[in-house]
Amino acid sequence: AMGGSASLIPRDLLAEYQELTFLSKQEILLAYKKFSELLPKEERESACSARVPKSQILTLPELRANPFRHRICHVFSTSEGGDDSMSFEDFLDMLSVFSDSATSDIKSHYAFRIFDFDNDGTLDWKDLEQLVNCLTGQGEESRLSSEEMEQLIKNILEESDIDKDGTINISEFQHVVSRSPDFASSFKIVL
Amino acid sequence: DGSDENEEGSAAENEETVKGTGRKRATPRTRRGRARGRDRHGDEEDEDDEDGTRRAGHRRHRNRRRGRAAGNEASDSDMEPAKARKNQANQKSKEEEEEEDDEKGGKSGKGKNEKKVDKKADKKGKKEKANKKKKDKKKSGSGSDSESEEEPITEEELAKLKEEVEEKKKLIATLRNKPWKMKKKLSVLKEAQLFVEKFEGALGKGKGKKFYAYKVMMTKKWMKFQRDFENFKTACIPWEMKIKEIESHFGSSVASYFIFLRWMYGINMILFGLTFGLVMVPEALMGKPYGSLPRKTVPRAEEATAMNFATLWDFSGFAQYSVLFYGYYNNQRTIGWLKFRMPLSYFLVGVGSIGYSFMIVTRTMAKNANDDGGGDDTSFNFSWKMFTSWDYLIGNPETADNKFASITTSFKEAIVEEQESRKEENIHLTRFLRVLANFLALCTLAGSGYLIFFVVRRSQQFALEGLENYGWWERNEVNTVMSLLGMFCPTLFDVISSLENYHPRIALRWQLGRIFALFLGNLYTFIIALMDEINLKARYFLSFTMLEEEKIVKYNMTIWEASLYNGTIPENSTAPPIQVDPADVPRGPCWETMVGQEFVRLTVSDMMTTYITILIGDFLRAVFVRFFNYCWCWDLEYGFPSYSEFDISGNVLGLIFNQGMIWMGSFYAPCLPAINVFRLHTSMYLQCWAVMCCNVPQERVFKASRSNNFYMAMLLFILFLSTLPAVYTIVSIPPSFDCGPFSGKTRMYEVISETLEHDFPSWFGKVFGYASNPGLILPFILLMVLSLYYLNATSKSYKEANLELKKKLQ
């Protein structure tokens, strides 16, 4: 299976992917294999140009349990129709950012985009609220009460909002997150 | 910084095209002028113009593209000269990079399609070159400015072209750092590669063309080789899939133990390679075979039981008189046709293993310290909980649920803590309880130390009376007791710590500290007791051997007298050849082998204890809980005993102390690294299986990363402590006269001076003699202390500067 998939990505394209992502050759080939398994049988030959619908991507075990899986698909998808389907190159992009060797810079850049639920370029109160709800799980009893939520978001803004405009922009976010020793090791997905 | 430039830029937005108006216009030029340095004045005007139009076009285009970035209307032209000011290598922001690409990508004035591959680069080449110059800080151009523009390719233009090519290459190398979509990256890459290919050939014109082309080809081949090697290295890393599975089920903290285990395995492999390849194999192949010398033969008395499994398991009998232990080695200076210097090799491998271990532990610590960044910063407590607490490696829904619960708990706790941070608790009660807890912990430590001492003394008694009279327990008492203590005391400490009521992270530190003290105390008590035993035995055997030596001498004399009567042996022969079987020769005490044996036995019993604990404590318990749950009064899975969690800190400490024992003992028993490699290998498989099969994800999920350097620091400390006994024996205790590669010398390190005498030219010995003069060494030590102090002071000042900058940011 691995040998077969190697022949399906043209060699120069494979070299370019290695150049442009943080993935090694084996990782790219493994990604290709996993990606083509998500496609229906007829489309597997042209996996390089096919698009996989979001529902299929979310069946991957690495994404299945992740509370941010929808945001991840949205951020990395280049689909014009807004259906968040991913092509193979989008998939590689995603794996490259989440790989072990990616720099903290690029990880924090994409983390910011993932947490920005309304896509407006800043993390405002609503974004933070949605973020907390994602993190506390789906059950009703595990959610924070509104006072706790308010207190929490106030504390966060106090810590991270340097220019005190009530929102966190990307440089403030990167400043906060780059100081964390846990960030790079937790922001990781490996196939 | 960025915002400042933006404001400037937006103010001067559409005034570019007007030449020379306004202050804003003047400053960019002067800045550019400064950056360019040697630029010819004439050219500037033209370029400004075209730059202006091009920049305007780009800016409009960029604005369309960056609809999302709120408020950043123009990140533009004034960025460019400002860029020239900043150090190119260090401070390129993302926006600058994109703009640079815009400039490179769209050559035509109103370039909408920045991705267009510029096939007409030649025509615009000159303008592009000049453009690039504005951004360059490093001037590696040629010196001669005197060339006129008439010549088609001047040296200066050649240099400019070279710089551009270098820039393109750098761009290609850093492309993966850019947060762009793959399509854009691919097109930029293709275009940059085409540019490089096209101009690299052109650059070759002029002197040294062939050499340049050759250099280019070699660089390409070297990069390809490097990439292939990286791929190969990644493929070589063992157990990657196993660890990944564990990560997805248990999160990164449990997986960090296995990653640590794998790292230890690597170190042990290297140590094994050293001892096996340079010590055991040469002696086995080129040294005298078994049975040729007294030290290499099983004594007559033990011959009968030498091959029994029990003896072998105990590492006596044939195992003792083999390359596995110190005593087997002969003190011949060179062996075999290779003239392999065995004693020197033994000594150097011992010292080299320690040196290598120090180097690699320190290097890993330094690397971790870099990653740690600011260290224990609590100023972003909530933000970090929010943004970095989710572990993206989790792929298992059950683990995810646990993680959700733990995150919720941690949020709630943090909020409560924040609110009640000023509340005064009943400090007196807390203090009393903490003092009590520490007292109890000290008692436990003292108790365990005494127990070990007592047990070692007892085993000494048994040994004197002959081990055959006692059963399994007496023979293995010491090892079993040490392993059991190591198993139960930490649980005891856990119970004691519940009195203390600390924050969980602080409680974990106390726990780790106490377990550390426990293991250390045990190890050192063991060694002290062992040393006592050795001394005792040495004195006993020494007196015994004296008698035997006398006997031999008397034997010699009787033979000699007998031969005198025969008259066949000349009178002044010193040692008439007596055909005594080596097995019959009485042996001197070989305390090194004994020490080695003790360490090997300890390692083996530790290994057995760990495996049995896993099998009983985890596996049987899980089986019991699973199958007896149906017929039990209370819910076994939620109440007591439930499934066990994976104890990260206990396992890591066990690993560290195991390694400490290896370091201590490998000088006396070259087989120890081999045994440890085997142990770690099987441990990996057994523990991976046990974790996946019998353990449940932890309820309180701790990030192990902050403790990483703590474990490394402990490892370093243990390494230091482990080498002390070996160093002490090398320097102060005379080696056994009858066994080992250093027999016959007064001190072990004399092998070095012996080698210097025989194998090196005489001046070398003199130089070494001068170098080891205390008059030279003391100033050297002084110099090292001073440089340490200086480096410490500089690092402190850097930290302070850091803090200042941080404050300024806020």
UniProtKB/TrEMBL annotation, chain A:
Q: Does the keyword Magnesium apply?
A: yes
GO function terms (MF aspect): calcium ion binding; magnesium ion binding
The reply to whether Repeat figures as a keyword in the UniProt entry is yes
Pfam families to which the protein is assigned, alphabetical: EF-hand_7
Keywords of the record: Calcium, Magnesium, Metal-binding, Repeat
Supply the InterPro entries for this chain.
Answer: CIBP, EF-hand-dom_pair, EF_Hand_1_Ca_BS, EF_hand_dom
Domain EF-hand: start-end pairs = 103-138, 148-183
The family database entries (SMART domains) matched by this protein are listed as: EFh
Superkingdom assignment: Eukaryota
Gene3D superfamilies assigned:
EF-hand (1.10.238.10)
Q: Write down what this protein is called.
A: CIB1 protein
UniProtKB/TrEMBL annotation, chain B:
Cellular component aspect of the GO annotation: plasma membrane
User: What segments bear the compositional bias annotation Basic and acidic residues?
Assistant: 111-121
On whether Cytoplasm is a keyword of this UniProt record, the answer is no
Acidic residues: which segments have biased composition? 1-15, 146-156
List the biased-composition ranges (Basic residues): 21-39, 55-68, 122-140
Segments traversing the membrane: 263-285, 306-329, 344-361, 432-456, 512-531, 710-731, 767-791
Q: Indicate yes or no for the key word Ubl conjugation.
A: no
Q: Which GO terms describe its molecular function?
A: mechanosensitive monoatomic ion channel activity; voltage-gated calcium channel activity
Q: Which family does it belong to?
A: Belongs to the TMC family.
Q: What is the designated name of this protein?
A: Transmembrane channel-like protein
Tell me the organism.
Rhipidura dahli
Which gene specifies this protein's sequence? Tmc1
